[in-house]
Each structure stands twice: as structure tokens, then as C-alpha cells.
Amino acid sequence: MSVQKASTPVKLAALAAAAVVVVLTVAVGLRLAGRRDRGPAAAAVEPPPGAGVVDLKERVRHEEYRDGKLRAAVRGDRFFLGPDGRNHLEGAVEVTNYGPAGEVVSRITADKIAYDKSAVLFVISGRVRVEAGDVVLEGGSFDYDQDRGLFRTASGGAFSSNSMTGTAPEISYSERADEVRLSGGFRVELAAAGAAAARAVLSGESLSYQRRARRGRAEGRVEFIGGRCRGSASAMDFDVAEGSSLLKNVVFDGAAALVIAGPGPDRAGGGGIRADRVLAAFFPGSDSLSRVEALKNSRLSLSLSMASKSVIEAPRAGLMFRPDEGLERLDASGGCRAELEGGAGNGRLLEGESFSYDASTGVLRASGVAGRPATAESSDARIEAPVIVAGPAAGHLEASGGVICLLRPDGERRAAGFFSASKPVFVSCDRLMFLGETGVSSFLGGVKAWQGRDFIMAGELDLMDTTREMRGRGGVAAGLAQAAAAGGPERRVEVGGEDMTYSAASRALYFTGKSYVRLPDARLGAETVAVALGPEGRGVETLTARAGVVLSKGRYEGRGDAAFYQAETDRVTLSGRPVLVDKEGGSTRGDKLTFDLGDDKILVENEGQGRSATVVK
What value does the mean pLDDT take over residues 497-514? Predict the structure, then answer.
């Protein structure tokens, strides 16, 4: 917002005051001019006749001196007492008021000046021009009521100075209240001396300004354009800075709207504000906005770092700006909603009890309250958490304080890890991080993801959207459906380890570091476990364990270098110098051990010339 040199009300008030001085000078001058030729008898003039001109004086010239210096000069073609009982000065009227040093303080020119005998009511008409300092007032007719201290015109007027020009159908100034009013539709343009175009424009139906309080109010379709901002409202209140013509505070009231251009040369990166009421303040000695507050039904369209376009709705919102009018901080409260538009038509809806945005970090923070967490929603997910942070880059999102996430099913979206893409996936954790440009979702702290009866628990879990890979750390456990044997019921398998990866290409889970498998009737431990999954919804097909394999079933324990489990046969085969240990003290070695979990049998096989097989029930 830019208001250069002088605001409209300030200059207009000065103009009106100067004009009053001129009129009073005219009154004194005309009185003296009347007495110059008529002498003392002029005070006892008889009532004028019904028509005609009385007591005509031609080529009126009057000069008033004080302390030997010219202080006032009055000129006109003729002076007379008219049939209306008023004194008239007509024809090339000019009244000049001089200062102590002989300088011109003010000058008025007109075709006519008329005033009553008591010199209380004055009418100045016909190509009126009032000059007071750098201010010029022009119009067809002006009145002055000395008793009321009121100067006004109702026939349209124009005023100008070296920093502004303006027009209004009605102009009035009250000396007693030191208040100026413009009405009937006004327009004021402000610009530096010699500027080709206005730097600020204020318009509306009416304007009043209290000069002592340096406070004004404009009403009726008010519009303001200045600097890098443009505002409109039903009414506008404003304060002018002390010792300056720059605005200090502005309040747009009633269907308020404010458009703020960005700080760059192309003015990109700005925004717009709509609310029932908008309060704005300016940096001292500047026409740059320092802060803006939007009250009730506020809607903000802003350029934020994490979105190509953003719209924020809140009952109350406050913005702080840098001196270059770039956004520094945003705070909103009372139940907020933000529409963040990403690239390629992707967008996200963010909601919370309160919002805060810091330009230095480039993040938008949404906070919830007890019983009503903050939420982030997109076409493929919904997130709930006490705190959700969007940014700084487009698509970046972080949630913390206890997170619940819903990954929506979408036929066009790739599945989340080994979960089916046709059903929703739920995830709970302490913290979530999503990096939009990488397509990686990281769930941290007490992670549990589940879909139906399938689940995965981990200290940390990463989901890669583009490759459908999944990585787990900090102790991982997965509960999976076991492909049912012919005619048998579905059973569950739990697989775990220190770390886990999932390959979508091979549709396999890989566990490393103290890995284990819990089968319905047995438990297997090893350094690594690889799980081959069947087609979507088929669950575990095979398991392969390596290094330090131990399989426990009942009183028996099988040990070996490797183990292989096939869900279709429900059998586990150990190899690599396996040994079967009876927990009651016996042991048996062989080349291969096969645990038939369904039939509850163990087969010990030896190869070579002494080939043999032993079945343990």
C-alpha cells in the first residue's frame, strides 16, 4: 500500500482551512472596499428596492497594510449592494493574502463574491480557484458560514497539490470539529511531484477525516490501490502516522478483500485475503505492509513453498511481512482448513484447530486439540495426528505425536508393499514422514500396518510408492496368511527379524539378523529367512532359512545349515549336516530332516551306500 507525501484527508483539511482564511480576508477586504468611497454613512444604508443595483463602485482596488507592509489586496471590476441585500464583488475578482515577509499565503480568483451585511454568509462563484501553498481548489461555487465555521460546495469540486489530485460532488469542512467530509462519490489520486501516474488511489461514496485525531473513515464501495496492495470493503477506517502523510493502520470492514503483490519485480508470489473484516498495519515511515489480520470467515489465497497454489480458510488469521512485503509468518486459529495444490493436479487437504507457517523454514504446521486431531487428506491417503507439518518442498509431509494413517485402495495406485491394492491398509506409528519427490513414506516408532488379518510391526518402516518395495528396521514381525493345503483350513504364519526388505519384482520378503518363523505347530530360527508369497491374496507359499537353522516341534529340535518350507505340503526340510535332537537326551544325524507338520512325523534320511530312512512319530 503506498500513500505518498500526504493522504487525501490531511491535505484536504489543510486546503479547507486555508480557504477559510482567504474568505475571511475577502470579508475584511470587501468591507474596507465598501467603506473607501462611501465613508461613515455607509453603515446606515436604507433597505434596498425590490430590483436593480444600488451603490455601484467600478474598478475596485483595495490594499491593506500592517506595519508598513502589504498584507491583503482585493481587486474586482465592480462592487455594489444588490437587490438581495447582499454586497457583491464581480468581474475578474482576485483576493490575495500576504505573509509578514511579503510572501503570498493564499489567493482566490472567481467571477463573483457575495456576502451579507454581517459578513457571516459568503458565496464565491464562477470559475472559482483557491490557491493555498501547494494546494489548489477549483469549482463552480463555494459557500462559507462564518458562525458555523463551515466551508462547503454542493456543485462539484476538484483539488490538487504537488502530491495529489481529487474530485467530489460535495466537499465540506468544519472549523470547530476540524473535520473534512467528501460525499456523493469521491476519488483521490496520490503521486509524487512530477509523477506520470498515481501511486495510490482511494475512492468511495463518502469520506470523513478528523484532523486533530489524524483518523478517517471512508464508506460505500470503498476501494484503495497503493504500493503492492489493493483493498476493497463496505467501509474503511484509517490512521495517519504522526508527523507524516503515510498511513499507519487501516481497517477494511464488511465484505473486505485485500490483494497483495509478491516481492519480486514481476510481483509473483503474492496472495489475496477475504474476510468480514481485515486489519492492516504498515512499517513506520513506509507504505509497505507489516502485518495483516483477517477476522471472521477469512479465506486466504497464498503462495507457499509446499504448494503451487494454496487456499486457507479460518475464523481468524494473521500475517506478518518483511519490509519488501514478502510473507514472513502466518498464524490461523479457530478451526482451519487448507487446500494445497501440488503438481500434475495432485492436491492435499489439511485441517487443524490452528495453523502456523514460517517462511524461514517453509513449512505449514497444523495442530489439533484433544479429541480432534489434525488431518491431512489426499486421493490415496488420510492421516490423523496431533501435529502435521507440510513442506518445505512440494509433497513433503510429516506427522507426529501418535499417527493413524489410512492408505486408500485405488486400482491405478500400486499396492503398499506386499499388501493388496484392492483393499485399504491401516498404519499406526509415533511419527510419519513422506517425501513427495522420492515417493517414500517413512513410519517411525512402534509401527503397525495391517490389512485384514495380515500385518507387519517394526521400529521403522519405509514404503516406496514407485517400486512397491518395503523396508523394515529395528525389529520386524509380519503376520501372513498361509496358503491352505488341499482341503485344509487357512492358517497363519509369523515371520520376523532385525531387518526386512520386500521385493515386488520377486514378490518375496527377506528377513536378516536373528530371524524367526512361527508356524502353527512349530518354530524356526535362523540368521536369514526368505518368504515367497503367492499371487495377491494367496499368502505364504514357501520359506527358506539359512545359517544356524533351528526348528523346534514338541520334544524334538532339528538343527542344520538350511531349511525349506512348502505351504502346499506343510513340510519343513532341513539340510546341511542336520541333526535331530530329542530333548529327553537322544540325537540322530542324517543328510536330510523332514518335518511333516500336518501328520506330526519327522523323517531322517541318509544318502550314499548306507542309505536309510527313519520315521519318528
Answer: 93
